[in-house]
């Protein structure tokens, strides 16, 4: 079911896209939308990771970076990838105050991971390792292709809905099945597409990535601490501007980056992109994966390198 579900979703999103083309341009519009959708699916398969990384301004980094923080980050991901039996992914950093991270790529051989500058600044080294192990678990579980392709298609549907508001609502063109009604329908399709994306990237994927990530890092408690810190900071007002502009990509991140949603006080929300953080933390603590990572306890930056006034000096300052 985990392999069948993404294909069903992609077919549904493609059908929505084609239907929107029909509402705007009739049979001709439907044919154009169908050709465009097929081309977009192929393009997304090969390039969705590049699109997402470019969307968030991700910058690739390596072990030769001048900042100790970044060098430690790179070294840890290389170590975690070896532990997971994965090829070394592309390692990137995005300039965002909000602490968060995601993984992308069509398969483990073409994967990339991204961490925000806010995450590298906020968390200690063990917690950063826990977060990035979670992202590598998505790569290992081959979730990343589904996550990036669905984000691309859902974003295109939203863009088409916006297009319809300007060009699809004319009552004078009788050949268009859309008109004003079509515009209203398309206005409804965009949130439906977003809902489909949320349902497709199921909460079980996040729980599974937490579990596998804890095994890779060797310390489930560090990931649990990281999730609590990220959740608190993200809900405290730190805005991810690019995520707010592209809400269809929210499911890519380890914690929902949008400012609107809030953590549940009880069970998981049926229509949320992520499980409630406290439920994830409880599940991690139940795993009993508690052995400390050897020689990596403490801050990601050696003492004396940017610590003085209580803030770390990162590569963006």
From TrEMBL:
Residues annotated as domain Peptidase M48: 77-285
InterPro entries referenced in this protein's UniProt entry, alphabetically: HtpX_protease, Pept_M48_protease_HtpX, Peptidase_M48
Residues forming the catalytic site: 135
Gene3D superfamilies given in the database record: Metalloproteases ('zincins'), catalytic domain (3.30.2010.10)
Location relative to the cell: Cell membrane
EC category: hydrolase
Required co-factors: Zn(2+)
Keyword check for Hydrolase: yes
Segments passing through the bilayer: 7-24, 30-48, 145-167, 179-201
E.C. designation(s): 3.4.24.-
Binding site for Zn(2+): 134, 138, 206
Membrane topology annotation: Multi-pass membrane protein
Coiled-coil region: none
Molecular-function GO terms, alphabetical: hydrolase activity
Sorted UniProt keywords: Cell membrane, Hydrolase, Membrane, Metal-binding, Metalloprotease, Protease, Stress response, Transmembrane, Transmembrane helix, Zinc
Textual note on the cofactor: Binds 1 zinc ion per subunit.
PANTHER family: PROTEASE HTPX
Sequence similarity: Belongs to the peptidase M48B family.
HAMAP family: Pept_M48_protease_HtpX
Name of the protein described by the UniProt record: Protease HtpX homolog
Organism: Caulobacter rhizosphaerae
